[in-house]
Amino acid sequence: MFVCSCFGVTEEQVRSHAEAGACTPRQIASACKAGTDCGGCVRRIQALLGRGACPRRELIDQGAPALAELPEAA
Ligand code: FES
């Protein structure tokens, strides 16, 4: 499903950028331009990021360095 119709960016693409470390709509925009045209998708991107798409966010909330190694997935 498309999150950003201006650039044809899908929810999956936003999730994979988030998993790669993009934790804010601005960082998502840097990765794939989503949100940089009409801006209509920024809230959808925020919602995706807020739903745990970014594994680093929890670590940041706990005060861990943002670029620290993530624990290995089992
Ligand atoms: S829908 Fe994403 S910038 Fe327009």
TrEMBL record:
<feature type="domain" description="BFD-like [2Fe-2S]-binding">
    <location>
        <begin position="3"/>
        <end position="50"/>
    </location>
</feature>
<comment type="similarity">
    <text>Belongs to the Bfd family.</text>
</comment>
<protein>
    <recommendedName>
        <fullName>Bacterioferritin-associated ferredoxin</fullName>
    </recommendedName>
</protein>
<keyword id="KW-0479">Metal-binding</keyword>
<dbReference type="InterPro" id="IPR041854">
    <property type="entry name" value="BFD-like_2Fe2S-bd_dom_sf"/>
</dbReference>
<dbReference type="Pfam" id="PF04324">
    <property type="entry name" value="Fer2_BFD"/>
</dbReference>
<keyword id="KW-0411">Iron-sulfur</keyword>
<dbReference type="GO" id="GO:0046872">
    <property type="term" value="F:metal ion binding"/>
</dbReference>
<dbReference type="InterPro" id="IPR007419">
    <property type="entry name" value="BFD-like_2Fe2S-bd_dom"/>
</dbReference>
<keyword id="KW-0813">Transport</keyword>
<dbReference type="InterPro" id="IPR052371">
    <property type="entry name" value="BFD-associated_ferredoxin"/>
</dbReference>
<keyword id="KW-0408">Iron</keyword>
<keyword id="KW-0001">2Fe-2S</keyword>
<keyword id="KW-0249">Electron transport</keyword>
<dbReference type="GO" id="GO:0051537">
    <property type="term" value="F:2 iron, 2 sulfur cluster binding"/>
</dbReference>
